[in-house]
Every structure is written in C-alpha cells, then in structure tokens.
Amino acid sequence: MQDMADLQADQTGNFLKHLAQTNPNPFLVEVDRAEGIYIWDKSGKKYMDMIAGVAVNNIGHNHPKVVQAIKDQVDKHLHVMVYGEFVQTAQVNLAKSLQQLLPDSLSCAYIVNSGTEANEGALKLAKRATGRHEIVSFKGSYHGSTHGSLSVSGNETKKAAFRPLLPGVRFINFNRIEDLEEISEKTAAVIIETVQGDAGVRIPNLDFLRALRQRCNETGALLIFDEIQCGIGRTGKNFAFEHFGIIPDILTLGKALGGGMPIGAFVSSQKLMSQLSFNPMLGHITTFGGHPVVCAAAHACLEVLQTEKWVEEAESKGQLLESLLTKHPKISEIRRIGLMFAIDMESAEQVQQVVDKCLDMGLISFWFLSHPNSFRLSPPISITKEEIQQAGEIILKALNALK
Ligand code: PMP
After folding, report:
1. pLDDT tens digits for 143-175?
2. For the residues 112-121, what does the mean pLDDT come to?
3. Do 54 and 123 sit in the same domain of this protein?
C-alpha cells in the first residue's frame, strides 16, 4: 500500500495505473474544486468550463441550493430500500416537480442512475406495452454504452466489437420523411434524440417531427424522445420537444437533471408505466435508482431553474457566443440551439489543436463521439454575457493560433 503522501504526490500516475482508462489521451486536469462556470486544478490554475461535464452542470458547478439540499438529505437518510417500496420524500418531490413541468401525458417518472439506464427502461417499457420487439433508431444517434442502448446507437465502429447486440433494430436517416415508411405495425418503439448531440448537434425539422409522430400514431409504435443531452434548459426550453409542440410517449432524461449528481429518468403516462408492475411484476427494478440524495439534488436543480431566468436567456446567450465566432475563417459551419454548439473545422487535427490550445489558455472545450470534424461547446446556461465575451476571446485566440 502506498502511504498518503505518495498518493497525493502522484495522483495522475495512480489515475493512469489504477483507474480504467477509456482513451489514449485523457485531459488529465487534476481537479481541486469547482464553482459556477469555473474549475480549479491542484496547481491553482482556473479553467472556464465551456462543456459543463458534457451538458451536465447546466446551473453551474456546486450551486449553493443544490449543495444545501444534498447536505439536508444526508442528515436525514441515505439509501433505505430498493426502488419502488418505500415512500421517500426526496423522490416524490422530484417526480412532482417533473410532472408540473411536463404535459399531462408525461406524469409518471421512473428514476434510475444514468442516461443509458433510462433508455434501457424506456425500450423495455415499449416492448412490454406493445408486445413487439423491433426498434427503429436514427443514423448518427447516441443513446448510451450498455448493451440495449448501444444496440440502438448509430455509430457502427463503437458497436462492432460487442456483437451480437439486440436483434431487430433498424436505422433510418434523421430528418428524412420518406424513411419513416420503415416504421411499421411490427415496431415497438422509435427512439430519437430530440436534438442529436453526439452526431454534431443536428436539429430536426418541424415537418419531420410531425410526420414521425403521425407515423407512430398510425402504426402503434411508441415514440421515445431521448433528451438526456438536450434536456433541462440547454436549448432555451425546459425540454427540447417544447420547441416543436410534439409530445413523445416516453421521454428519457439524465445528465443535467441531477444538478451534478448521477441520475436518469424515463417518463410516460401512468397507464403506460403501470405495465412494468405486472406480467411480470417487477418488470424493471433497480437497487439505487431514485437515491434520496440524488433526488434531493435534482429537485433543488429544477427549483433553481424555475426561479432563475437562465432557460429563457439560453437562446440569446447562444446567439451572442455564435456572433463572436461565426466570421472566423477557420470555421466552416456552426450548428446551434440555445447553448448547445457544434463548430465545424476542416479536420479532426484542427479540432484537437483548438481543444488543446483552449485548455492551455484555461478554457475547457471538447469533441464529439461521432463527428470528429467539430468541436463542442455546452457551457452552463448560468454563464453571464461578460463570461461569454471572455470565452469568445480565448476561443478566437486558439483559432488564430491554428497552423
Ligand atoms: N443519450 C444521450 C443523447 C446522451 O448524450 C448520453 C450521454 N452522452 C446518453 C444517452 C447516455 O447517458 P449516460 O452517459 O448517463 O449513460
């Protein structure tokens, strides 16, 4: 065993040796603390966080109301029982605040621990309710890394090594109305990111979403909107589907919902959700889903979003940031909704250079899983206009430094 002093001295070495690694070039920022839109490393260097843990910290890091809610809940109780047995105030409060923000047909939430679990639950619910097993999904989509969610994700290179995956999954083109013919009476569910995130921010056309809703109605396929990345205020509405007025049968949430704590949820009507409680009973179960500390944080996060003006300001803040960058000659296209950005460059190498240079200058940006030519910006929506100006200047410097 290493003694404590050694451990402190070689955090990065131990991280590389003793924690599972997911890529050859991790950022290796040694995090000391975080607050608002800033993260500080162990050397005292301050970073402007323009990624927010990939669309997680929408209300900024360590929001005092979220921290207080966590502390209050810790003093009351931690885990007491598996999901679905005891009445836990923190869970009930969260479910009730979600219900108040959502349409009547989305009044019942199953709370889990992560985004991918939310999608697993949603797919199971659709299969159980329809008695069908085929799933239609979209090219470019990302729905998570566990077997079911991976099966309905579009990125073939990420899937090949893990086959066989779920059978009966078809992929159609995002935004192409003709492809909706693939949805049939055999389809249990169509799963779609309301705004595709990892494909490089792809925004659906209203006509396309309308036709999708219509086709699902005609065939009896359930429509699942995955708002794990685009949800909870990032696009300028609490939920991205509100931009289009199209309501899914099942909504999946995660990331920002927890205010910085790990969460996922799938939401439907109570009638639909009830099918997980019989034939078989315990149709979906979880030990830790709906953990009271996480739910207390999520509830506080939703309350913060209702009291601040950040959601309604997300679009004008997004426009400001876009206007600062848009004329740069190295940028070929910006796709954006609210504060969800994909910025296209000539090559993946250029993206790497920009991300590295920004990090040097104390700004965190990131890339996309399925779209190597863009870099990503998804800052906390609590960011101020002054902070956006500063961020814009740093990003422009990084772009100017490109060879
Ligand atoms: N769906 C979407 C749209 C996502 O962006 C992600 C995460 N990037 C997931 C699902 C999976 O969420 P998690 O990583 O919490 O399992």
Report:
1. 999 999 999 999 999 999 999 999 999 999 999
2. 98
3. no
The predicted-structure confidence for 229-243, as pLDDT tens digits, reads as follows 999 999 999 999 999
Ligand 1 near 143 CB (within 6 A): yes
Q: Considering only CA atoms, which of 265, 226, 220 is closest in space to residue 129?
A: 220
pLDDT for 403: 81
Give the pLDDT band of residue 77 (cuts 50, 70, 90): very high
Residues 390, 394: Cα–Cα separation, whole Å: 6
Domain co-membership, 169 together with 180: yes
Q: What is the DSSP string of 7-70?
A: HHHTHHHHHHHHS---SSS-----EEEEEBTEEEETT--EEEESSHHHHT-TT-BT-HHHHHHH
Confidence band, pLDDT 50/70/90 cuts, at residue 1: low
Report the DSSP beta bridge partners of residue 109.
Answer: 267
396: containing domain: 4-59+310-400
Distance 280 CA to ligand 1 centre (A): 28
Torsion-angle region of 90 (φ positive above 0: left; ψ -120 to 50: alpha; else: beta): alpha
115 lines ligand 1 (CB under 6 A): yes
Residue type for position 90? A
Could you read off the pLDDT of 128-141 as tens digits, one per residue?
A: 999 999 999 999 99
Pair of tokens at residue 308: 């601040």
Count CB-CB contacts under 10 A for residue 64.
Answer: 11
Structural domain count, the chain = 2
Q: Is the CB of 227 under 6 A from ligand 1?
A: no
CA separation (Å) from 251 to 109, 113, 224, 280, 305? 9, 15, 6, 23, 19
102 and 74 in one domain? Answer: yes
Residue of 141, 192, 193, 229 to test ligand 1 pocket, by largest number of atoms within 8 Å of CB:
229
